[in-house]
Amino acid sequence: MKHKTDILSFILRFLVTVSAVTTTFIILLIIGYIGIKGIPYLTPSLFEWTYTKENVSLTPALINTVILTVLALLIATPLGIFAAIYLTEYAKQGNKLVKLIRMTAETLSGIPSIVYGLFGMIFFVLTLGWGHPCSLIAGTCTLAIMILPLIIRTTEEALLSVPISYCEGAFGLGAGRLRTVFSVVLPAAIPGILSGIVLAVGRIVGETAALIFTAGTLPKIPNSIMDSTRTLSVHMYSLSSEGLYVNQAYATAVVLLILVFLINYLSAFIAKKMIGGANG
């Protein structure tokens, strides 16, 4: 019996190791391929302030990506966190409303981005008249709706992972539920919440289909939230689809990867500082 257990453990350990190595190899292969194809074309003209057909500058798209990301997070993050707090701390177990909210969040997570784009175009652009034919605010609101279920679910899991002894200790010291949530539970769940935000940022910066219909493809920095704009992913798609600037599209992909890495590093740094401050 012990011999069979040892063989099974070895097989499972081997499968886990192979899976980890394969995943790492695929990621490194993708990064290496994009780097080899794109780094030689990271020329100064690619970072000029104004886009032209000669330089196909990515600077306006880079700035637009940062603006869209910040605005979408400003809308979705508070809503997602407060919704998760309600679901975990205030809603009664088995409540029909809670079941409806969770089912809705899970359903929204599985909807293709092109559907979000069509909804954003019909509702925000055509019905509400937010820009014509596209606008920055329409793209922002569409992205906020897209990432909201992700932030709710990850925040909910982060809050549920906080040991119940934290709440019991706070209640024992006389703290109310609201103070316990915001002073004890929420700070302890910050790393998990930031992980959800990072995943949301990854979806934002990599989104193309929804933004073509809502934010547009105009390669310039918008003067107002009602102007059309273009993000890095849409910029990369436009360059590659034209067939004339494929090398510049790879260079844009390199910048996009660097941006995602910087966001991941920054979020990990912030989480580490918050945990250190809480422990201190």
Kindly state the mean pLDDT as a whole number?
A: 83
Largest sheet geometry: none
The SSE string, one letter per element, is: HHHHHHHHHHH
Total individual domains: 1
* Class from helix and strand fractions: mainly alpha
The number of helical elements comes to 11
Q: Which range does the strand content fall in? A: under 5%
**What is the terminal-to-terminal distance?**
49 Å
Helix content: over 70%
What's the name of the CATH homologous superfamily?
MetI-like
CATH architecture: Orthogonal Bundle
CATH fold name, please?
Answer: MetI-like fold
Quaternary structure classification: single chain
Q: What's the CATH class, please?
A: Mainly Alpha
Q: Briefly, what is this?
A:
The protein has 280 residues and is mostly helical. The chain has helices spanning 2-38, 59-90, 96-109, 113-127, 136-160, 164-172, 177-188, 190-205, 209-214, 232-242, 246-279.
